[in-house]
Structure formats: C-alpha cells, structure tokens
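Lab meeting tomorrow. Look over both lines:
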Amino acid sequence: MIEIDPAIDAYAEAHTSPPTPVLAALAEETTRDFPAHGMMVGTLEGRFLEMLVFALRPTLVLEIGTFTGYSSISMAAALPPDGRIITCDVDETSNAVARRHAADAGVADRIEFRLGPALDTIAALDGPFDFVFIDADKPNYRNYYEAVLPKLSTGGLIAADNTLWSGRVVSDDDDENTRAIKAFNDHVAADDRVVCVQLTVRDGVTLVRKK
C-alpha cells in the first residue's frame, strides 16, 4: 500500500464501521495462512466496496480476483434482493476459504464462484454488468478492462484496485507489474469512451463509467 502516516490510517479505520465477526475471522485466517495476505482488501476498502454496491443497487456484479473472499463477501452483504455476484479466480486453495466464509456469512447463495482464467469466464458471460471490480494479475488489467467495458450496463461502474501500486507509479521502478499498472492508468485516462477518477483509497482505486 501507499506509505501514509500510520496514525492517520488507524484514525480512518477507527472511524469506519468495524468488520463483521465473519470478516474479522477471515482477515485473521488470511493473515495467518497466506504469505500474500496484502492482496486482501481489508476493513476500509471492504466498507468502501460495500457502500458502492449499496448505492448502485446492482443486479449483476463481476469480480475479477476472488482471493480469500473479503471483497466479494463485503459486496454481497449490500446487494439488493435480486442481486448476485460472479467472482473469478484460478487458485483453488484461496477459493475454498472464500466459499467457507461466504457460507458462514450467510451470503453463499448470492455469490457464484468461478475457477479458471477470468478472460475465458468473461467471454462466456452476456452481462450486462452493473458493477465490475478488477483486482487480479496486473499484466492483464487492460485486457480485463477491454473485455468488460462493452458489457457494462448503462449507469454501471468499473472499479480497478491497486492503481497507485504502493506509489511506484511515480517512481522509476520498471518491473512488469509496475509497467502494467502505469500503462493501464494511461490507457483509461486517455479513453474518450469513459469518465474516470483515481482515488487514494488504500493502494489506489480507479472508478470508471461509460459516457
């Protein structure tokens, strides 16, 4: 994440509604058992996603990158009665954790878990998607964006996570992931089909809507 004053981060979290017991248990398990636990969205971004879903009242949400399920469970809690989430990932171990905690949270019936390459899943879906959350492998961000944009509903939103990439987007770092995020950010900002805003929520979240 971006380096910010830990006191400010703690203050923001203290003034955000705390996670449910299920999400707190999920966060504890993820931190304990997964070396890449930093991929989990956590309390602040989880509540942010929940608020977006609550405001949008989407019928169909697409999540690209399930990990252990914190984000999908957060969003599912705010869905309208006819809403559902399709979430994509390729890792069976983390997916099993997500499914178990979704059941514990009472939202398993609102989430459809898909295992396999997300681009294949997207190609097989008709949409329209009312909300899309992109939080997966960075080199494919632009491919995911281009795959979902034509299937975005009128009034729908795309949210892309990690678009500030721990501040490396303004550094001289030249690894594959940093190059991919920089290229994605430039592509979206120059895309005359959309309106976008890049936010400094945790590691950067970019919101996109079609004109």
